[in-house]
């Protein structure tokens, strides 16, 4: 997979694609690498080609809350917003798998947006899609009980047999491992899940 797989690529003019390909800097990182921390001001935007990246926030009184997972051919709005406006990133980005992609400097992104309305519209569409996701995450944290949030997260997983730690679930939903473990035990007694070592089976 290369840059041609990105949604905006086919709408670029020849000069735009030449500019993009000239200034994209290849990037490869191992699993568990930090791309940027909450509060950093990023200078480049990641165009993710392979792998996945977790975006999360940390707040007072909670461990972590996952905002979303970045997948191939996607662009991160936390990274994009920080780079374009030169303001602190609202979250931290950590690779969930080895990744490969490209980094694009702020001034090149600005130039592409000025030159190509399709690319500009693509950037704006990112905010609509991701802000909706972030709003739903924050609504869940504020209004839903822990057991509801746990079960909702389990329902979102592709398989009914999920290999995951209680700490990882806590990081996704914005709680602590102890609270998650207690609620999972309660859910097991209610017949909603079955707990195994390192695994949870959704009933």
Task: Give the structural class.
Answer: alpha+beta
Terminal Cα separation, in Å? 37 Å
Strand order of the largest sheet: 2-6-4-5
Name of the CATH class of the largest domain? Mainly Beta
The averaged pLDDT comes out at 87
What's this entry about, in short?
The chain is an alpha+beta fold.
Describe this structure in words.
There is one protein chain. By secondary structure, the protein is α+β, with helices and mostly antiparallel strands. The chain has two domains: about 5-140, Jelly Rolls (Sandwich), CATH 2.60.120; about 145-200, Arc Repressor Mutant, subunit A (Orthogonal Bundle), CATH 1.10.10. About 45% of the residues lie in helices and about 25% in strands. It has seven helices and ten strands. A hairpin with a 7-residue loop joins strand 4 (about 55) and strand 5. Helix 5 (about 145-155) crosses helix 6 and helix 6 (about 165-175) packs across helix 7 (about 175-190). The chain is elongated, with a radius of gyration of 19 Å. The two termini are about 35 Å apart.
List the helices and strands and how they pair.
Blueprint: H1 14-23, E1 25-29, E2 34-36, E3 44-50, E4 53-57, E5 65-70, H2 77-85, E6 92-95, E7 99-105, H3 106-115, H4 117-143, H5 146-156, E8 161-163, H6 166-173, H7 177-189, E9 193-196, E10 199-202
Antiparallel strand pairs: 1-7, 2-6, 3-7, 4-5, 4-6, 8-10, 9-10
């Amino acid at each position: 997979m290369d840059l041609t797989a990105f949604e905006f690529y086919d709408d670029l003019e020849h000069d735009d694609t030449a500019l993009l390909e000239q200034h994209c800097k290849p990037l490869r990182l191992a699993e568990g690498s930090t791309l940027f921390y909450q509060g950093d001001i990023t200078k480049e935007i990641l165009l993710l080609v392979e792998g996945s990246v977790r975006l999360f926030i940390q707040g007072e009184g909670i461990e972590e809350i996952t905002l979303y997972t970045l997948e191939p051919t996607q662009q991160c709005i936390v990274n994009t917003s920080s780079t374009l406006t030169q303001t602190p990133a609202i979250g931290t980005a950590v690779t969930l798998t080895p990744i490969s992609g490209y980094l694009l400097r702020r001034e090149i992104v600005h130039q592409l947006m000025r030159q190509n309305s399709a690319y500009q519209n693509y950037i704006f569409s990112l905010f609509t899609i991701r802000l909706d996701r972030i709003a739903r995450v924050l609504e869940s944290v504020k209004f839903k009980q822990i057991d509801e949030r746990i079960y909702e997260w389990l329902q979102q997983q592709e398989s009914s047999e999920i290999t995951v730690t209680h700490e990882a679930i806590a990081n996704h939903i914005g709680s602590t491992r102890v609270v998650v473990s207690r609620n999972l035990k309660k859910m097991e007694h209610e017949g909603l899940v079955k707990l195994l070592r390192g695994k949870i089976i959704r009933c």
